[in-house]
């Protein structure tokens, strides 16, 4: 796997398996994005009252972690899709050897 192989559109369209992997990770990425935004929104509102500041801080921390999960999901997705491609390449080579 070369770094230039990551994030190529052709990789996600390579097979039904890579399409499924891409779809599941895209769904997970969208859910994490939505949750992070909600944690930040609710945390922001809770800062209006002194009694809920601690909860607001925790919500901001969780939202920050979720924002860090987003690029991690993308990298994991790309590596998994490349591995699927490598395995199909190996199978093709095996079939074509005399």
Automatic annotation (TrEMBL):
InterPro entries: YrhK_domain. The chain crosses the membrane at residues 21-49, 55-73. Pfam families: YrhK. Keywords: Membrane, Transmembrane, Transmembrane helix. It comes from the Bacteria. Residues 25-78 form the YrhK domain. This is YrhK-like protein.
């Amino acid at each position: 796997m070369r770094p230039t192989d990551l994030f190529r559109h052709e990789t996600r369209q390579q097979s039904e398996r890579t399409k499924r992997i891409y779809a599941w990770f895209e769904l997970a990425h969208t859910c994490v994005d939505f949750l992070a935004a909600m944690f930040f929104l609710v945390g922001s509102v809770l800062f209006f009252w002194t009694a809920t500041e601690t909860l607001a801080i925790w919500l901001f921390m969780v939202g920050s972690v979720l924002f860090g999960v987003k690029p991690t999901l993308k990298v994991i997705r790309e590596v998994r899709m490349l591995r699927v491609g490598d395995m199909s390449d190996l199978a093709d080579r095996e079939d074509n050897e005399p």
